[in-house]
Amino acid sequence: MADTSDDLALDGNPLDAIGGGASIGYARVSTTEQNLRRQVDALTQAGCIRVFEEKLSGKNAERPELAACLDYLRSGDTLVVLELSRLGRSLADLLSLVSGLRKRGIGFTSLHEALDTTTPGGRLVFHVFAALAEFLRELIAGGTREGLAAARANGVRLGRPPAMSPEQIRHARALLAEPDTTVASIARLLGVSRSTLYKYVPELSTRTLEPELGT
After folding, report:
1. What is the mean pLDDT of the chain?
2. DSSP string, 125-178
3. Which residues span the domain enclosing 174?
4. pLDDT value at position 189?
């Protein structure tokens, strides 16, 4: 997620004068409420001159009505939602959307949480959200690095699994002891390629290739 700290600056930002335009609403169904009437009524009462109604839940990556709403908004307008969960699927998604609005000179208001980015208090809340998201991201990254280091210290193999298991390697070496067994036949029996056999059982390279001609 892009850093939103500059976009949500509290003072001295030329976008602090956001406002004065139209209030545009966005409503989206939830898993528990499939009827948008309550949201639309609340947004209309809040002064929205138009409400975009999304009939898809947050599980859908594509939100065509949100895209249309964002395209409709102009500098000075304010996007209004009933609650934060109706706009963003996650904190990162929410911050990204609000940051994009700020860059375009568009305000954002959530009625349920009483947040308004056209005011210093509202911008402060989103500034804290952005800092919290960055802190959590660093915690997760740090925990992942520590977990990988601990796994390596305990002898845990990381990355892709080996092409041949220890049992297959032992089986290949046992077959190698039989003079009439070819590398090709061992590879077919174990379900691996000859190059893989040579990699994991290097002593096979000393065996003559003549018996494998024509295989």
Report:
1. 77
2. HHHHHHHHHHHHHHHHHHHHHHHHHHHHHTT---SSPPSS-HHHHHHHHHHHTS
3. 166-212
4. 80
CA distance 17 to 77: 11
The residue behind tokens 């209004």 is 80
pTM of the model as a whole: 0.56
**Is residue 173 exposed (0-12), middle (13-18) or buried (19+ Cβ within 10 Å)?**
middle
Please indicate, yes or no, if residue 7 is contained in any of the structural domains. Answer: no
Largest CA distance in the chain: 90
3-class DSSP assignment, residue 52:
strand
Given 84, 118, 133, the domain boundary residue is: 133
Q: What's at 59, amino acid-wise?
A: K
Provide the number of structural domains found in the chain.
2
- Of 128, 155, 33, 141, nearest in space to 85 by CA: 33
- Give the residue numbers marked as catalytic: 30
Q: Two tokens at 34?
A: 């499939």
What is the pLDDT at residue 16? 44
CA dihedral 191, 196, 202, 207 (to 10 degrees): 60
Hey, what are 133's tokens? Answer: 């998201």
